[in-house]
Specification:
about 0% strand, mainly alpha, about 100 residues, coiled coil
Length: about 100
């Protein structure tokens, strides 16, 4: 029982570490997206409005954002799934600990 409890505690700690890592990755991707948008806005401001019309600007924005959108969406989906799995693991471990506590 002591070894099993120690193993579960180790798994819980590992899950916590994974969750922190996933949250950090999510934050990193969000920040990268914000940085890309800021860079795009800065570049648009540097260009002369007389040279660029709205259609060209819209096309550039679309072409710049489109390749980044799918990987970010995929990363977000993977992080979301990993978060749900970690959360389910936590709930199962807590339930197991509760059942063991009732047995004592």
């Amino acid at each position: 029982d002591h070894q099993r409890l120690a193993h579960q505690e180790a798994e819980l700690e590992e899950s916590k570490v994974q969750l922190k890592r996933q949250k950090a990755l999510k934050e990193m991707f969000i920040n990268q997206d914000k940085d890309a948008k800021r860079d795009l806005e800065r570049l648009e401001k540097l260009n002369e409005p007389a040279v660029l019309n709205a259609a060209v600007t819209a096309s550039k924005v679309h072409n710049n954002v489109k390749p980044k959108k799918k990987p970010l969406q995929q990363d977000f989906a993977e992080l979301k799934e990993a978060h749900l799995l970690t959360q389910e693991s936590f709930v199962a471990e807590i339930q197991c600990e509760r059942e063991k506590s009732k047995g004592l």
